[in-house]
Design goal:
Alpha-Beta Plaits; 11 helices; globular; 40% helix; alpha+beta; four-stranded antiparallel sheet; 12 strands; Ribosomal Protein S5, domain 2; 2 domains; eight-stranded mixed sheet; 340 residues
Length: 340
């Protein structure tokens, strides 16, 4: 038997950062994101040799361990071990023997939610293997707990829910880890126009999102007024983005992105830098009306809204920075699992 699963990565269109504690706990956060056809993949092959083989195919990392109920969550495969530990502890109740293989269609630190999406994918594979009756909210919350509580990794809450639910979603975040996911019924022509005009670039640099998020968290905890007001504006941005995509005011999205980017840079140091600022200003000079870094900031994927037929001009204008345009499509489906 072979068990497979995949979960989609996402573009954070608006409100990024408002899902992070303590802001979400104190004020409530909201985010609009959309999943794309880049995925985190998991394969489990059960064995009976008393061994656990963990391998991240994209990173060319492998560990072989003796079967046990708990694996010390260290090293480059800590996420894989963390999911295994929690699934055995809460559901399976016995040590297993298997080979677990993963790969992600984007580099680590890309800003597309790759780590959380991978966790969702691995949970899905174990749930498929043992027929564990977990709903979408259950899987997303479990993924959040494994990352943020069990492994102590700093970050927000949107990625786990985007990967599990899929599609365009407006998400609301409250205290006590409460999350409400509102799927958006966007007309196909509006989604197609957004896909055509939203150009995604890979900057070729990965960043430590956890460090940026820790600075953001500290600023909110210390009641830094500039950071707090900037985060309030990002929550406002998510409302504006929702209205634009639902009402078909697609060309307003560039301005909404620009409004959010100016606010996001004030949340914490490290979100932008002189090179990123130069890329952004050059994009505006070449037909873009707004854009943002996907994720916490500092590098990874950047996307710009470029109306009419100016995307070629934009791509040509940014070529001198060595950034690479990334072809993508929006997807409607979230986590998908099966066994053969």
């Amino acid at each position: 038997m072979i068990i497979r699963s995949k979960a989609p990565l996402r573009l954070g269109l608006a409100g990024g950062g408002t899902d992070v504690s303590p802001y979400a706990d104190l004020y409530g956060g909201s985010i609009l994101n959309a999943t794309i056809n880049m995925f985190a993949h998991t394969t489990i092959q059960p064995t009976n040799n008393g061994k656990i083989v963990l391998q991240a195919m994209d990173m060319e990392v492998q560990e072989t361990l003796d079967s046990a109920e708990f694996l010390e969550p260290t090293g480059k495969l800590a996420l894989l071990k963390g999911v295994y530990n929690r699934m055995v502890k809460d559901y399976i109740k016995k040590p297993l023997s298997f080979t677990l293989s993963t790969r992600v269609d984007a580099p680590p630190g890309s800003g597309l939610g790759s780590s959380s999406t991978l966790v969702v994918s691995i949970i899905g594979a174990f749930a498929e293997w043992y027929n564990i009756p977990l709903g979408e909210y259950d899987i997303a919350h479990l993924a959040y707990e494994i990352e943020r509580v069990d492994l102590g990794l700093a970050g927000g809450r949107q990625d786990q829910y985007a990967a599990t639910f899929g599609g365009f979603n407006f998400m609301e975040f409250y205290n006590d880890d409460k999350v409400i996911v509102n799927p958006l019924r966007i007309k196909q022509k509006y989604a197609a126009e957004l896909e055509h005009n939203l150009v995604l670039f890979y900057m070729g640099t990965s960043r430590e999102s956890a460090k940026i998020i820790e600075k953001q968290t500290s600023n909110i905890s210390k009641n830094n007024e500039d950071a707090l007001q900037a985060t309030h504006r990002l929550k406002e941005q998510s409302i504006k983005m929702k209205e634009a995509v639902l009402m078909g005011e697609i060309d307003a999205i560039g301005e909404v992105l620009d409004f959010g980017w100016k606010s996001k840079k004030m949340m914490a140091t490290g979100i932008s830098n002189p090179e990123i600022d130069e890329i952004y200003s050059t994009a505006l000079q070449n037909g873009a009306t707004g854009g943002k870094i996907s994720g916490a900031g500092g590098g990874g994927f950047f996307f710009f809204y470029c109306p009419q037929v100016k995307r070629h001009q934009l791509i040509k204008g940014l070529a001198k920075f060595g950034v690479t345009p990334q072809h993508y499509h929006f997807t409607k489906q979230g986590l998908y699992t099966y066994s053969v």
